Amino acid sequence: MSHDLPLRGRTAVVTGAARGLGAHMARSLVRRGADVALLGLEEDALERVAAGLPGHAEHWPVDVTDEDAMDRAAALVERRFGPPSVVVANAGVVAGGPFLDTDPAVWRRVVEVNLIGSAVTARAFLPALLRTRGYFLQVASLAAIGPAPMLSAYCASKSGAETFAQVLRAELAHRGVGVGTAYLSWADTEMVRACDRRTAMRELRAHLPWPASKTYDAGPVADRMVRGIERRAAAVYAQPWLRAGQAVRAVLPGIVAEGSRRAFLRLAGRADLTATGLLGAGGRAAEASGETRF
């Protein structure tokens, strides 16, 4: 039975679990026997995800950029399930458009959620992970390996999150806590579909080198990431080819820049190249939460 349910008896926390990759990861973790705490901004969506999981799951609405609220959520999770041994920093938002045209508040909010939110998540849950000698998984992205035009805040935040996780790994290895970084390409989630509804962003992505232009089913992506959790992997590649991407990341900026130059020339005058604001339902929730807090 322990082989069939390798995470039986473990408590796992997933941020950004109201939809998309976070919801898929929560489902995969429960199927492997974990008790799962779902954190996110959208209480109704979190409740629906938790209710549909085939195991023990609870949800807590919280903004991952709010230190006090995350500390309270960590205490509530521990009271309900005991100290977690797995924490997945998955919460993320995206905004599209040229950097110079993007509202500075929107650009800042992407970085706050994707990077600062990961640090706040780690600070809230690391005391418990130290007690359980657990594992912290930072969800990064292909955007941490190579640049994606029109996604400057997202790329900057994911690159920062990658480095943050690598530093944590070095600092915590001697204390028995594992830290991993998950790399994934475009998954078929509501956030990616919101990007694709913008012609310019869809066509720019289409001109990325294959297979970086492809969209992948979110379920198998989540399952591969959870298998990485089981291994306490330092790096988890949701698509195997991303490992090769690491080897050529030094030349990717030049390749992307040249392809994008040609794509922008083709798009000029026939596609909307203006800034999008935060995209998708998760983006709208993050925008509303940021306005309430600040």
UniProtKB/TrEMBL annotation:
<comment type="similarity">
    <text>Belongs to the short-chain dehydrogenases/reductases (SDR) family.</text>
</comment>
<dbReference type="InterPro" id="IPR036291">
    <property type="entry name" value="NAD(P)-bd_dom_sf"/>
</dbReference>
<feature type="domain" description="Ketoreductase">
    <location>
        <begin position="10"/>
        <end position="189"/>
    </location>
</feature>
<dbReference type="InterPro" id="IPR020904">
    <property type="entry name" value="Sc_DH/Rdtase_CS"/>
</dbReference>
<dbReference type="InterPro" id="IPR002347">
    <property type="entry name" value="SDR_fam"/>
</dbReference>
<dbReference type="InterPro" id="IPR057326">
    <property type="entry name" value="KR_dom"/>
</dbReference>
<dbReference type="Pfam" id="PF00106">
    <property type="entry name" value="adh_short"/>
</dbReference>
<keyword id="KW-0560">Oxidoreductase</keyword>
<protein>
    <submittedName>
        <fullName>SDR family oxidoreductase</fullName>
    </submittedName>
</protein>
